Recover the amino acids of this structure.
C-alpha cells in the first residue's frame, strides 16, 4: 500500500505540474475576442519548454524562436551598432540547464506533455534507435544558429529556419489555430504549410507508437538542456552495488535511457519514473549538489532523505 | 563507493550564465524579445 501510495503521489505530482505549466504557458484566453495574440510584458520572458509565441494563447516567448530571431537579425544589427547576440535567452536556458539539466523537458514542456498523452493510445509500441538521438544536435546547430545567421536576404536579414520549416509545435499551437481564428489567412497557405502539416502528422503518428519521438530525435531545446545533464545541480545517482541490471528502468523509461549504463544520459528528462516506479532495489537516487541526497530504497521500500 | 558527488561545476555554470543573462538584459535584449514575440510571424509558422 505504501509503495502504491508513494508512486501514485509522484506520478500525480508530475502530471499536475505538467498541466499547470501547459496552462500557464497558454493562459491568454481572451484571444477569441481580441482576435490577436497576447502582447503583454510577460512575453519578455522565455518559457522553459517548447511553446510557440505565435500561439494565440501563449503568454511567454519560445526560447528557440527568440534565439533564431537574434541570429537572423544579428548581421544588420551589428551594422546598425546593436550588439544583440541573444545572451538574454542563452543565459536563461543556461541557468535552467545548470540547475536542473533536462528536467524542464520532463516536467514543464507542453509539447513533451502532449507526446506523453498521445503515447497512451493503445497500440504496439516501438523503441527508437539510439543513433537517432544525435540528430537533434545538427538540427540545433544548423536550423537555430547557422542557417538563420548565414543565409540572408538583400537587406541582411535571415529566417527562422527551425520555426519555418520544421517545428511541429508551432504548426499545432500557432499555424492551425491562426488559420481557424483568421480565415482570411487561408489564402496564404502554400506548399510550406502543407510540408509543416506533414511533419506534424508524421510526428503525431510516431508519438502513438514510440515514446516522445520529437524530444528524443529532433528537439533543439532538448539538445541544449541535454548538454547540462552531467553538470547540473540536480543529478541522478546510480548505485552499482544494488543494481541487478534487471532493465526495468530501461523498459519504463519514456526516453529509452539505459540508466545502469548512463545515469545522467543526454536523453534523461528526470521524470523519476525509474526511481519511483521501476527499480525494486533502491539502486537509483538523485542528489541536489551541495545539499541533499534523496535515495529511493526500491519501489517496495520507503524513501529516505539524507543530507546536511 | 562515492555516492554523493559534490562539485563546483554547476555553481560555476550558474554564475557564468547569470552573467550572460545580465549582460543580455543590460544590452536591451529583453525589449527585443518582447517586440519579436508580440508580433505574429506568419512565415515563421509556415503561412505566407
Amino acid at each position: 500500500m505504501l509503495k502504491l501510495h508513494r508512486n501514485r503521489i509522484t506520478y500525480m505530482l508530475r502530471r499536475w505540474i505538467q498541466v499547470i505549466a501547459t496552462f500557464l504557458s497558454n493562459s491568454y484566453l481572451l484571444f477569441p475576442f481580441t482576435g490577436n495574440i497576447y502582447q503583454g510584458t510577460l512575453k519578455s520572458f522565455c518559457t522553459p519548454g517548447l511553446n510557440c509565441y505565435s500561439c494565440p494563447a501563449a503568454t511567454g516567448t519560445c526560447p528557440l524562436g527568440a534565439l533564431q530571431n537574434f541570429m537572423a537579425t544579428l548581421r544588420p544589427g551589428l551594422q546598425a551598432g546593436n550588439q544583440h547576440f541573444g545572451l538574454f535567452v542563452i543565459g536563461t536556458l543556461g541557468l535552467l540547464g545548470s540547475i536542473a539539466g533536462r528536467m524542464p523537458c520532463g516536467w514543464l514542456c507542453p509539447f513533451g506533455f502532449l507526446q506523453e498523452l498521445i503515447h497512451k493510445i493503445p497500440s504496439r509500441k516501438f523503441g527508437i534507435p539510439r543513433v537517432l538521438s544525435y540528430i537533434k544536435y545538427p538540427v540545433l546547430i544548423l536550423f537555430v544558429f547557422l542557417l538563420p545567421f548565414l543565409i540572408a536576404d538583400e537587406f541582411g536579414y535571415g529566417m527562422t529556419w527551425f520555426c519555418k520549416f520544421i517545428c511541429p509545435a508551432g504548426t499545432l499551437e500557432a499555424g492551425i489555430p491562426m488559420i481557424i481564428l483568421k480565415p482570411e489567412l487561408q489564402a496564404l497557405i502554400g506548399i510550406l504549410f502543407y510540408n509543416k502539416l506533414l511533419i506534424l502528422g508524421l510526428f503525431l503518428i510516431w508519438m502513438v507508437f514510440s515514446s516522445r519521438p520529437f524530444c528524443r530525435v529532433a528537439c533543439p531545446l532538448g539538445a541544449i538542456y541535454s548538454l547540462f545533464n552531467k553538470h547540473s545541480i540536480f543529478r541522478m545517482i546510480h548505485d552499482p552495488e544494488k543494481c541487478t541490471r534487471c532493465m526495468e528502468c530501461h523498459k519504463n523509461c519514456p526516453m529509452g535511457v539505459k540508466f545502469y549504463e548512463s545515469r545522467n544520459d543526454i536523453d534523461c528528462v528526470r521524470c523519476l519514473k525509474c526511481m519511483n516506479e521501476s527499480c525494486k532495489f533502491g539502486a537509483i537516487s538523485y542528489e541536489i549538489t551541495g545539499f541533499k541526497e534523496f535515495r529511493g530504497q526500491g519501489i517496495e521500500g520507503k524513501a529516505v532523505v539524507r543530507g546536511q | 563507493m562515492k555516492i554523493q558527488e559534490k562539485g563546483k561545476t554547476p555553481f560555476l555554470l550558474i554564475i557564468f550564465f547569470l552573467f550572460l543573462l545580465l549582460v543580455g538584459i543590460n544590452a536591451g535584449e529583453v525589449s527585443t524579445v518582447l517586440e519579436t514575440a508580440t508580433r505574429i510571424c506568419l512565415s515563421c509558422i509556415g503561412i505566407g
Q: What stands out?
A: Chain B is about 55% helix and 0% strand. The longest helix of chain B spans residues 9-26. The radius of gyration of chain B is 19 Å.
